[in-house]
Write the C-alpha coordinates for this entry.
Amino acid sequence: MKKRYILVAVGVASIVLGSLSINSVILAQPGEYDPWLDDDEDGTVDVNDLSAMGQAYGASGDPTKNVNVMNWPTSSAVTVWWSEPVSSGPNLVSDVYTAGGFGQLHTLVQVTGIAGQERLRFNIDGRIWNLDYTTARGIVAYDQYFNTSGYWAIHIPVPTEEFYYSVNADPETTGTITLSFYLTWS
Ligand SMILES: [Ca+2]
Protein backbone atom coordinates (compact mmCIF):
# COMPACT_ATOMS: atom_id res chain seq x y z
CA MET A 1 0.00 0.00 0.00
CA LYS A 2 2.73 2.46 0.96
CA LYS A 3 4.63 1.75 -2.24
CA ARG A 4 1.50 2.59 -4.21
CA TYR A 5 1.19 5.96 -2.44
CA ILE A 6 4.84 6.68 -3.08
CA LEU A 7 4.42 5.86 -6.76
CA VAL A 8 1.40 8.16 -6.97
CA ALA A 9 3.30 10.91 -5.16
CA VAL A 10 6.26 10.57 -7.50
CA GLY A 11 3.91 10.64 -10.45
CA VAL A 12 2.21 13.82 -9.26
CA ALA A 13 5.56 15.44 -8.48
CA SER A 14 6.81 14.59 -11.97
CA ILE A 15 3.77 16.19 -13.54
CA VAL A 16 4.13 19.32 -11.37
CA LEU A 17 7.86 19.63 -12.00
CA GLY A 18 7.29 19.02 -15.69
CA SER A 19 4.78 21.83 -15.93
CA LEU A 20 7.09 24.10 -13.89
CA SER A 21 9.96 23.54 -16.28
CA ILE A 22 7.68 24.31 -19.22
CA ASN A 23 6.60 27.53 -17.46
CA SER A 24 10.18 28.53 -16.74
CA VAL A 25 11.08 28.01 -20.40
CA ILE A 26 8.17 30.25 -21.36
CA LEU A 27 9.22 32.87 -18.75
CA ALA A 28 12.79 32.83 -20.04
CA GLN A 29 11.71 34.13 -23.44
CA PRO A 30 12.63 37.80 -23.97
CA GLY A 31 9.58 39.90 -23.15
CA GLU A 32 8.80 43.58 -23.07
CA TYR A 33 11.21 45.77 -21.16
CA ASP A 34 9.84 46.58 -17.69
CA PRO A 35 11.70 49.47 -15.98
CA TRP A 36 10.48 48.23 -12.57
CA LEU A 37 12.58 45.07 -13.08
CA ASP A 38 15.68 46.97 -14.26
CA ASP A 39 17.21 47.45 -10.82
CA ASP A 40 20.44 49.14 -11.92
CA GLU A 41 18.56 51.23 -14.51
CA ASP A 42 20.99 50.45 -17.34
CA GLY A 43 18.20 49.86 -19.83
CA THR A 44 18.50 46.06 -19.85
CA VAL A 45 16.92 43.47 -17.59
CA ASP A 46 19.69 40.94 -17.05
CA VAL A 47 21.65 39.01 -14.44
CA ASN A 48 22.94 42.22 -12.82
CA ASP A 49 19.37 43.02 -11.80
CA LEU A 50 19.03 39.58 -10.24
CA SER A 51 21.93 40.15 -7.84
CA ALA A 52 20.06 42.94 -6.04
CA MET A 53 17.06 40.66 -5.69
CA GLY A 54 19.31 37.84 -4.48
CA GLN A 55 20.79 40.00 -1.74
CA ALA A 56 17.39 41.19 -0.59
CA TYR A 57 15.64 37.83 -0.99
CA GLY A 58 13.30 37.14 1.93
CA ALA A 59 13.28 40.74 3.20
CA SER A 60 9.94 42.40 3.90
CA GLY A 61 8.74 45.95 4.41
CA ASP A 62 6.59 48.80 3.06
CA PRO A 63 6.08 48.31 -0.72
CA THR A 64 5.56 52.04 -1.37
CA LYS A 65 7.89 53.17 -4.17
CA ASN A 66 9.35 56.64 -4.56
CA VAL A 67 8.66 57.96 -8.05
CA ASN A 68 9.31 61.23 -9.86
CA VAL A 69 6.28 62.31 -11.86
CA MET A 70 7.12 64.87 -14.54
CA ASN A 71 3.91 65.17 -16.55
CA TRP A 72 1.52 66.62 -13.97
CA PRO A 73 -1.75 67.50 -15.68
CA THR A 74 -3.23 70.96 -15.22
CA SER A 75 -6.85 72.02 -15.25
CA SER A 76 -8.39 74.54 -17.61
CA ALA A 77 -8.89 78.08 -16.33
CA VAL A 78 -12.42 78.73 -15.11
CA THR A 79 -13.94 82.21 -15.35
CA VAL A 80 -16.08 82.74 -12.25
CA TRP A 81 -17.01 86.43 -12.67
CA TRP A 82 -16.54 88.86 -15.55
CA SER A 83 -17.01 92.52 -14.52
CA GLU A 84 -19.58 91.35 -11.97
CA PRO A 85 -21.14 94.29 -10.05
CA VAL A 86 -20.63 94.25 -6.29
CA SER A 87 -22.31 96.52 -3.78
CA SER A 88 -23.34 96.52 -0.15
CA GLY A 89 -26.19 94.14 0.52
CA PRO A 90 -26.22 90.39 0.03
CA ASN A 91 -22.83 88.74 -0.44
CA LEU A 92 -21.78 87.90 -3.95
CA VAL A 93 -21.34 84.11 -3.85
CA SER A 94 -19.96 81.97 -6.67
CA ASP A 95 -20.94 78.49 -7.76
CA VAL A 96 -19.32 75.64 -5.86
CA TYR A 97 -16.36 74.08 -7.66
CA THR A 98 -14.75 70.68 -7.16
CA ALA A 99 -10.99 70.53 -6.77
CA GLY A 100 -10.97 66.97 -8.13
CA GLY A 101 -7.80 65.82 -6.37
CA PHE A 102 -5.73 68.87 -7.41
CA GLY A 103 -3.44 70.33 -4.75
CA GLN A 104 -3.03 74.04 -5.52
CA LEU A 105 -5.59 76.71 -6.33
CA HIS A 106 -4.44 79.72 -8.37
CA THR A 107 -6.86 82.65 -8.46
CA LEU A 108 -6.60 85.86 -10.49
CA VAL A 109 -8.73 88.78 -9.37
CA GLN A 110 -9.32 92.20 -10.92
CA VAL A 111 -11.27 94.79 -8.93
CA THR A 112 -12.47 98.11 -10.38
CA GLY A 113 -14.37 101.08 -8.98
CA ILE A 114 -13.06 100.81 -5.41
CA ALA A 115 -11.64 104.06 -3.99
CA GLY A 116 -11.72 106.24 -0.88
CA GLN A 117 -13.45 104.49 2.00
CA GLU A 118 -14.88 101.73 -0.22
CA ARG A 119 -13.83 98.22 0.67
CA LEU A 120 -14.50 94.65 -0.44
CA ARG A 121 -13.97 91.63 1.75
CA PHE A 122 -12.90 88.68 -0.40
CA ASN A 123 -13.04 85.05 0.77
CA ILE A 124 -12.14 81.69 -0.63
CA ASP A 125 -14.28 79.17 1.23
CA GLY A 126 -14.11 75.42 1.70
CA ARG A 127 -17.06 73.28 2.70
CA ILE A 128 -17.44 70.89 5.61
CA TRP A 129 -20.31 68.44 5.37
CA ASN A 130 -22.20 67.00 8.32
CA LEU A 131 -21.85 63.29 9.02
CA ASP A 132 -24.70 62.14 6.75
CA TYR A 133 -23.87 64.66 3.99
CA THR A 134 -27.22 66.42 4.15
CA THR A 135 -25.97 69.92 5.00
CA ALA A 136 -22.71 71.77 4.46
CA ARG A 137 -21.05 74.65 6.25
CA GLY A 138 -18.81 77.20 4.53
CA ILE A 139 -15.39 77.67 6.12
CA VAL A 140 -13.20 80.66 5.29
CA ALA A 141 -9.90 79.36 3.94
CA TYR A 142 -8.60 82.70 2.62
CA ASP A 143 -9.56 86.19 3.76
CA GLN A 144 -8.47 89.53 2.25
CA TYR A 145 -9.77 93.10 2.02
CA PHE A 146 -9.55 94.96 -1.29
CA ASN A 147 -9.59 98.70 -0.53
CA THR A 148 -8.34 99.86 -3.92
CA SER A 149 -8.93 98.87 -7.51
CA GLY A 150 -6.23 96.53 -8.80
CA TYR A 151 -5.08 93.03 -9.64
CA TRP A 152 -4.24 90.14 -7.34
CA ALA A 153 -2.76 86.70 -7.94
CA ILE A 154 -3.60 84.42 -5.02
CA HIS A 155 -2.03 80.97 -4.67
CA ILE A 156 -3.23 78.70 -1.87
CA PRO A 157 -3.41 74.96 -1.21
CA VAL A 158 -6.81 73.59 -2.19
CA PRO A 159 -8.85 74.07 1.00
CA THR A 160 -11.21 71.09 0.58
CA GLU A 161 -12.62 68.98 -2.22
CA GLU A 162 -15.27 71.67 -2.78
CA PHE A 163 -14.64 75.41 -2.69
CA TYR A 164 -16.28 78.67 -3.70
CA TYR A 165 -15.68 82.41 -3.65
CA SER A 166 -17.63 85.10 -1.81
CA VAL A 167 -17.40 88.89 -1.77
CA ASN A 168 -18.95 91.21 0.79
CA ALA A 169 -19.00 94.96 0.08
CA ASP A 170 -18.82 97.56 2.87
CA PRO A 171 -21.66 100.13 3.08
CA GLU A 172 -21.55 102.85 0.37
CA THR A 173 -19.33 100.59 -1.76
CA THR A 174 -19.86 99.78 -5.43
CA GLY A 175 -17.41 98.19 -7.85
CA THR A 176 -16.87 95.21 -10.11
CA ILE A 177 -14.93 92.02 -9.77
CA THR A 178 -13.48 89.77 -12.46
CA LEU A 179 -12.11 86.44 -11.28
CA SER A 180 -10.76 83.23 -12.76
CA PHE A 181 -8.96 80.25 -11.28
CA TYR A 182 -7.11 77.15 -12.31
CA LEU A 183 -5.84 74.14 -10.43
CA THR A 184 -2.52 72.29 -10.44
CA TRP A 185 -1.41 69.08 -8.77
CA SER A 186 1.56 70.62 -6.98
CA1 LIG B 1 19.65 46.34 -15.63
